[in-house]
Amino acid sequence: MSSTFVTLAEVLECRGGPLLEDEVWSLLLGTAESLVDVSYKGTVILLIIISPTSLLLSATGTLAFKNCTLSDEAMAFTAPEMLQGLSYSNLSVFYQMLVYSLGMTLYWSVDYHLPQNQPVQLSDHLNSLLLSMCEDLAQRRVNLNSILESCESQHKASLLPPPNRVIGQLVEDVFHKNVPLRILLGCHGM
């Protein structure tokens, strides 16, 4: 199976609509696992903002992050404290900024191309979790470990497929459903 990556933005563009709730839970679990793993290792990653164009999905079901710095495109996904020029002197502050940008990215993905008068289709549980990730005040934001616990609990309770399977399927859908239209639509892997 190919290890080619596509961005979340490409998945949504090729689909022409938002992610489904189960897909969001899978992306959230996969991303939280990756970030918790990196944080426990004490590794500093260059990534500053998670956005639809910096969250990479592979056909093998893995996730990666493309470095994304502050730009006009990334502003909507950037934590308020970063926009205010506050420094992130320790890793916990840094990861809280990533929680914010991940929450904004996933919320954007469930609102993608919805008509203005149509509400986002999310359970109260997921909606509440995403909103708590997008809190303007960093100290009020949910932390990575709590996100991970919530996702694991949801996956067990709902018998959701493993994140790698869902992520792989999202990528395969881009490659298989749009192969003849890929050039016309501008959808392509990296």
From TrEMBL:
Coiled coil: none annotated. It comes from the Eukaryota. Pfam families: KIND. Residues 6-180 form the KIND domain. InterPro entries: Kinase-like_dom_sf, KIND_dom, NonRcpt_TyrProt_Phosphatase. The chain crosses the membrane at residues 44-65, 86-108. Gene3D superfamilies: Transferase(Phosphotransferase) domain 1 (1.10.510.10). Keywords: Membrane, Repeat, Transmembrane, Transmembrane helix. This is KIND domain-containing protein. It comes from Salmo trutta (Brown trout).
